[in-house]
Amino acid sequence: MNHDFDVISAARNWRTDAVDTATPDQIISSVYSSDVLTLEQLKARLSKPTFKSLQATLERGATLDPTIADTVALAMKTWAMEKGATHYTHWFHPLTGATAEKHDSFVSPNGDGSAIAAFSGKELIQAEPDASSFPSGGLRATFEARGYTAWDASSPAFIMRHANGATLCIPTAFASWTGEALDTKTPLLRSVEALNKAVTPALKLFGASEGTRVSSTLGAEQEYFLIAEEYYYRRPDLVMTGRTLFGAQPPRGQELEDHYFGAIPDRVLSFMTDAEQQLYALGIPVKTRHNEVAPGQFEIAPIFEDSNIAADHQQLTMQVLRNTARKYGLVALLHEKPFAGVNGSGKHCNWSMSTNAGENLLEPGDTPHENLQFLFFTSAVIKAVDEHQDLLRISVASASNDHRLGANEAPPAIISIFLGSELSDIFDRLESGQGGRGAEAGLLGLGTSVLPPLPRHAGDRNRTSPFAFTGNKFEFRAAGSSQSISFPITVLNTIVADAVSALAEELKAKLDAGTELDTAVAEIVKGTYSAHKRIVFNGDGYSDEWHQEAEHGRKLLNLRTTLDAVHHLTDAKNGALFEKFKVLSDRELAARQEIMYDIYFKTVNIEGETTEYMARTMILPAAVKYLSELHAAGSSKAVRGVAAEVEAAADELFDAVQALSAQNTATGGDEVHEKAHHMRDQVLPAMTAVRQAADKLEKVVAEQHWPLPTYRQMLFVK
């Protein structure tokens, strides 16, 4: 059976009527945010006092008034039913890294056998999912099931559509009966408030108004792969783990560099257009789409938003990509490394700080060397990243991201900051006392009058840096493509709040002592940069020389794997930091550490068992069948030898997986930390051995006998 032909035929017959026929102007004017309960919609449906009360919470951080809940709930229900919704759900972010929802109908029976549509303020504000059925890291036991979801008024409600209807989704936080955060949203909201409380007083020292409010902003680029749906379902490893556990390298991968920014295939472009229209309706400001470096890899990127809303939108983006791909006979793979030997997928988090007046605090302006406020806050970021390298690394740690970090398509596990030549020169001059500005931006001539001269940036870009300044923001490039961005943002907000607080206190002391503002800021920037410039590196982050210099010369942390990083989460300095800003309590922090260990162990355990299963039930039987044909022809020696390697490696993998159970039985122990380390140190190497032998076998077994879709098929058959 020619599966390549079947997949190509399916690609040519995808449904063209799946794409909305709206014009671009109609998409912009009527589709955008059409499934979002915006402030304008609420204002039109609420009384002036109710709307002003809600607005005070959203814009000034005032405490939410629960007495307005019934009025808001009625407006929300009416709007949702006009949109076709029959159910509502509290939509939340448990510590699984995904989202969760339980749907309830608006239907409320009457005593006479009829029914009405009802939705109360109590139902809006609070619901009770089972807290023991989600990861809690020990905060909740099976017999302690009560948990609460609480309405997050700062993130707008929205409609999620399906083939037979629609559901009103209400963004909520998730907490235990004892009040501890069981989600990623609650600490994120706390960190936003911590950042505001730290930065607002600092801004006042620069002459900002009393009413200024500060929040972090974020735009998260999403990389992903697309493969034919048929190939996906014929690969148990992709279905069970999200990545290929086997696969010999094809003669061609990404070495020709012809896929990046290349022409987007027609079926893929139609999928992208469909997904974008759904995202526009959800108010998600996606801006960019393109082919990524690896064959079969793509990217979608939004523009800046409030970081809490950006985190919600990022989860929705992943959901829409997955759901929409199926309409086109495709599967969207969000794993960090679904294919060995080609680039993996990340999620670059473009982070900055902004006032409620729209002022970007990391905007350097035309004269960055004279922009005291910009230099002050940039110094704070440098200080924060240097002092909390461990937390930034931990925030992106996972078994799946371990396959990507440190490879040539991703930043190294060593955290450093790229400032670029112009900004580095400015800070170096300030440190030396020279001041001023060196090389400035200019025009780039292209050698022909047909082409216009281009404005040239004063500094280059650096794709090897995990934390790079990119003009008016910092790009945290180490986040994994499948993860929630909430924890990385929470960490960024908190560590910068800490640094800004310290520098603002120092600045205030200097001003109180009579020092002029420009002199005081220059002294602080100089001292901060001098103390923390070891974290600044503008060179090649992939080079062996940098790894040596960073680890031994600069004494930077090199936390190569998740388990190298995670045990630092509960270090005393980190507990004190999160407690100081009321972002995470010691119990909440310890719970997250336990969950990270547990998820790591379970992820690798699933991969190990899947590897053994596929080797024994799919790969070895295919080899035996092929051997029988070769034996009849009198030439089976080479294949038999490689098949024996696979069998021996599978036996060793089985022993490695089973050794953990035997050890627990003998010692009576069930320590998740020990399990996780056993998986890293014993099971992963055994899996690698099985794969190496199986990939050798793939290259000598006839294609018609090989039971799995190959890399050639999955990456190149569209």
UniProtKB/TrEMBL annotation:
SUPFAM superfamilies: Glutamine synthetase/guanido kinase
GS beta-grasp domain location: 86-179
InterPro entries: Gln-synt_C, Gln_synt_N, Gln_synth/guanido_kin_cat_dom, Gln_synth_cat_dom, Gln_synth_gly_rich_site, GS_Type-3, GSIII_N
Domain of life: Bacteria
Residue span, GS catalytic domain: 184-619
PANTHER family: GLUTAMINE SYNTHETASE (PTHR42974), TYPE-3 GLUTAMINE SYNTHETASE (PTHR42974:SF1)
Sequence similarity: Belongs to the glutamine synthetase family.
Protein name per the record: Glutamine synthetase
Annotated organism of origin: Deinococcus sedimenti
